Amino acid sequence: MKAEDVKVYREVQKSAELAIKAIETISEKVYDDTLAMQISRQMIKYSDLRGRALDKLLQGKAQPYKKNMVAEAFRAGEIHSRTLLDNSTSHIAELLIEGSNRNITEMCRTLNHNPLAGDGAVEMAKELMDFEAKNIARTKKFL
To answer: Which residues, at least 6 apart from 15, have a Cβ–Cβ distance to it below 8 Å?
Structure first.
């Protein structure tokens, strides 16, 4: 497996892992049943993407993305602090949209820095970006 492919698959895995962690953290604050159902469905897709990226990395005998516990704790703390005074559905939707935008930006950056990545890795990265764009569109109705 090419180094560029490894970087792209790791970024897919990382983005999906961070999104899953964010959903786990924020889901306890969601009181709108429709939004709760939407983020549950998102979690399933993120889990699928994370698993497929991890499989590709392991098949290529590459090291998968290693969780950074400090970064995860920081992100969870950030979510808790940003919802402490305002846990309205609209505010939570805004936080979810910000997370999806951040994932799209990071994937674009990774693809731009790895122009020689193979079709499979690029396709999976684009699948993640398309999924994030759809998440944003679906979540806007809760603003």
So the answer is: 103, 106, 107, 128
Tens-digit pLDDT profile for residues 25-36: 898 889 999 999
| CA–CA distance, 16 with 68 (Å, rounded to integer) | 14
The reported pTM is 0.89
Question: pLDDT band for position 70 (50/70/90)?
Answer: confident
CA 85 from centroid of its chain's CA atoms: 25
Q: Of the candidates 72, 79, 106, which has an alpha carbon nearest to the alpha carbon of residue 94?
A: 79
Residue 89 vs residue 71, higher pLDDT: 89
Q: DSSP letter string over 77-139?
A: HHHHHHHSS---HHHHHHHHHHHHHHHHHHHHHHHHH-TT--HHHHHHHHHHHHHHHHHHHHH
Dig out the tokens for 64 from the structure. 């998968």
Rounded CA separation 43/47 (Å): 6
Domains recognised in the chain with CATH numbers: 3-142 (1.20.1260.10)
